[in-house]
């Protein structure tokens, strides 16, 4: 469940904003080119926003004095193109130094750097649950809401369901999702598989698919963790289904999503499970014979996933003002337009057009989806339980 702010919390946030502003702003005049991060559609009147915009322009001026920021991002198709050049074009004079790696490598790197008292990143994009479970306890990510400065970001009416999509289950909130899509589990070779055959997860147990399925190794955190927990917790599926899947179907496991997409396109494995949707969509755009079974097509339903669409302010950020400018830009309409264009996943901003997106991944109005992007959701089924089920199934398969 997502936290709904209360009046005491708002007073707390106001105090924190005041403290951070006093401690972080450099004594300099606002830059005449300190423009807002995007075209504001806020209905707030000019007189009311004037102090807020003055504060924003001071932060932008201070960010230009810093001159750079370091961005750490979990690898996702299009993330570099979405974030670096568009931001530098919007805010000339602030250079982005980008470091990108899989979340399972990026998070240990951040922890090792902090152990060595090296505080390198300013902003972290991508790790969702790992940011909350591993980085937050050691102070590697900071409270995020005080960084929201521009009215286009602070106006909740511009966001889906008029709320913040926090990953954290408790304060201080450090990790916010800005994209959400209906999660998919099954991918396929479109020349070898009729997608209409799949109306239930149980169809994966058809003997004709034995030895013809490749799956992301869901024993590792990351891709597929939301969807597999949904399967685990579904009353018609549960651990019994997963045990049968890995014990009876001779499933091949991999962590190389690009290679798995190639295998599916080549027909080596006509069926794929829990494979990067971004990689699949890129292959489809290239005309490769691959496709995804929409989550809504299966009678058991599907959860909402957030993938790598999360933002963090790093703890002890060396360029705190530049970090705040970047965060506000990314969460603005312009930033979300750039993200959605390159990553091809739906933004949680309501003023971002969905044109060009796969309609099957866009959450449908009025449908109640399980919000799989929260710490609370992931905690319902510990990773150890998922690993145990998979390994039990694989052990049975080798007997």
Structure description:
- The protein is α/β, with parallel strands linked by helices and 399 residues long.
- It folds into two domains: 7-38 and 49-180 and 306-368, Periplasmic binding protein-like II (D-Maltodextrin-Binding Protein, domain 2, 3-Layer(aba) Sandwich); 184-302 and 376-397, D-Maltodextrin-Binding Protein, domain 2 (3-Layer(aba) Sandwich), CATH 3.40.190.10.
- The chain is 39% helix and 12% strand.
- It has helices spanning 7-24, 46-66, 79-90, 103-115, 129-135, 151-154, 225-233, 238-248, 257-266, 277-285, 320-330, 333-343, 375-379, 383-397, and strands spanning 68-74, 95-101, 123-125, 141-142, 176-177, 181-182, 186-189, 213-216, 252-254, 271-273, 290-292, 304-305, 310-314.
- Strands 1, 2, 3, 4, 5 and 13 form a six-stranded mixed beta sheet that branches. The protein has a five-stranded mixed beta sheet with strand order 9-8-10-7-11, covered by helices on one side.
- Strand 1, helix 3 and strand 2 (95-101) form a beta-alpha-beta unit.
- Helix 3 (79-90) packs antiparallel against helix 12 (333-343).
- The two termini are 42 Å apart.
- Residues 1-36 and 38-48 have low confidence and may be disordered.
């Amino acid at each position: 469940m997502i936290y709904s702010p209360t009046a005491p919390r708002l007073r707390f946030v106001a105090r924190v904003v005041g403290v951070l502003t006093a401690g972080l702003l450099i004594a300099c005049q606002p830059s005449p080119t300190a423009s807002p991060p995007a075209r504001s559609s806020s209905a707030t009147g000019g007189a009311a926003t004037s102090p807020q915009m003055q504060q924003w322009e001071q932060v932008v001026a201070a960010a230009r004095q810093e001159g750079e920021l370091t961005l750490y991002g979990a690898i996702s198709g299009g993330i570099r193109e979405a974030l670096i050049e568009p931001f530098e074009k919007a805010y000339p004079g602030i250079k982005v130094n980008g470091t990108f790696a899989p979340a399972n490598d990026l998070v240990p790197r951040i922890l090792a750097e902090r152990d060595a008292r090296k505080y390198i990143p300013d902003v972290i994009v991508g790790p969702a649950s790992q940011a909350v479970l591993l980085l937050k306890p050691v102070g590697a990510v900071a409270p995020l809401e005080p960084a929201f400065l521009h009215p286009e970001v602070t106006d909740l009416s511009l966001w889906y369901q008029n709320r913040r999509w926090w990953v954290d289950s408790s304060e201080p909130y450090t990790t916010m999702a800005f994209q959400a899509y209906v999660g998919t589990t099954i991918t396929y070779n479109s020349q070898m598989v009729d997608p209409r055959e799949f109306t239930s997860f149980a169809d994966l147990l058809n003997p004709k698919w034995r030895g013809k399925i490749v799956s992301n190794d869901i024993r590792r955190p990351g891709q597929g963790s939301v969807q597999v927990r949904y399967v685990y917790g579904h009353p018609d599926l549960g651990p019994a289904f997963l045990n049968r899947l890995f014990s009876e179907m001779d499933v091949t496991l991999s962590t190389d999503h690009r290679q798995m997409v190639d295998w599916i396109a080549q027909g080596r494995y006509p069926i794929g499970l829990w494979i990067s949707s971004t990689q699949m969509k890129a292959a489809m755009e290239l005309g490769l014979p691959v496709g995804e079974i929409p989550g809504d097509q299966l009678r058991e339903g599907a959860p909402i996933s957030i993938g790598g669409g999360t933002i963090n302010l790093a703890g002890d950020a060396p360029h705190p003002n530049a970090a705040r400018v970047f965060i506000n830009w990314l969460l603005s309409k312009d930033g979300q337009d750039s993200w959605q264009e390159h990553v091809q996943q739906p933004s949680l901003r309501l003023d971002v057009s969905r044109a060009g997106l796969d309609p099957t991944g866009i959450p449908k109005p009025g449908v109640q989806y399980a919000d799989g992007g929260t710490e609370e959701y992931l905690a319902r089924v510990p990773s150890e339980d998922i690993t145990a089920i998979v390994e039990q199934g694989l052990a049975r398969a080798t007997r």
